What does this fold into?
Amino acid sequence: MKHRHSKNKQIILISVAVFYALAMITVIYLFFIKERPEPDKVEKASVIVDEPAMVVIDTADIPLKEAPDIGEPVVVSQNTTVEPEPDDADSGDLKERLKNTDGLLPAHDTGYIFVGDSRFVHMNQVCKITDNENLFVVAKVGEGYSWFTSTALPQIKRIISTGLFKKWKIVICLGINDLENLEQYEKKYNGLKDTYDISLISVNPITSYGSLSNTKIDSFNSGIKTLDFPYIDTFRLLQHTGYTCTDGLHYDADTSKKIFNGILMGLEDENPGILVKAPASVLDKASLSRKKSLQREITETNKYIPKQISSNLLLPEGTPAQQTGNDQNTENGESSSSNTDPPAQEPEVHQLTQEEIDALYGKSSHDDEDEDDEDDEEDD
It folds into this structure.
């Protein structure tokens, strides 16, 4: 009996010893013997880490991906130029008209308010629209219908209430950030018909940008074209004369200037004779100072400050994080985007500086200060 207990004890001790031996072998294999990554694999991994960060504008308060609300990753490309077809019969005539319009401006008997999104922000920076005493710009990066009704319209009313000019023309180009809101735009524009003299500008073409397409843009334009307003078709103008996108959605300086001159051509068609080489000033010194002060205030109010950025917009290495496309807005329960699902996890926050935002449009961080100094000198 004693012998049997001794034998059982030996078996247990041997089993425990074997178990610990296997455990030690497993640990040694995992930490010392298992194959490590090859050097080239490590190098490749570092390349991936060094690739440009993917960012996306949080659309909780703003409508970009200007960022778009298209719900797809967007790769920012280099400049892409679209040329007209060689046999385009309209190309030559339109280019000639653009050339003849360059340098002309609307006479100062009427005030003009240009309303738009990031494309108008850039157009103003290129063409210095607001340097003219009768031209105002109400525009904000990444905006659309909700901003138009909640912010732009009150600003338009405030400008007109100054009484600086007896007549006013409102020039509106919105929709690239929320093409799905066509019906809301149509309803709102129709409701403003008896209040304002409005000209509608076509949403202009892209080259390649996520799920956006020129077919969708053309469909939106077909809708607003049927409204009872003057319609200026700069979409067709660019198709017939060519255009260049810097990221698939936004334009280079030459194209922005072409769009501005195309709008002036359309205004001239509506009211022949309004464009002149050097419009005579109609505002006295005090009124001109009021105009400049109000425009600066509106521009400052409409400066785009992104809330946060996460990973959906791929930017080229060395490029400041940029906001370039559609947005998501909600007003009275109306959604401006079909992509409303919340993100799976909270994105990493990266706050953009104003210098980075200005860099998107080739504007120095000191430009505003310089402009203010120039205005002050003129006022003195």
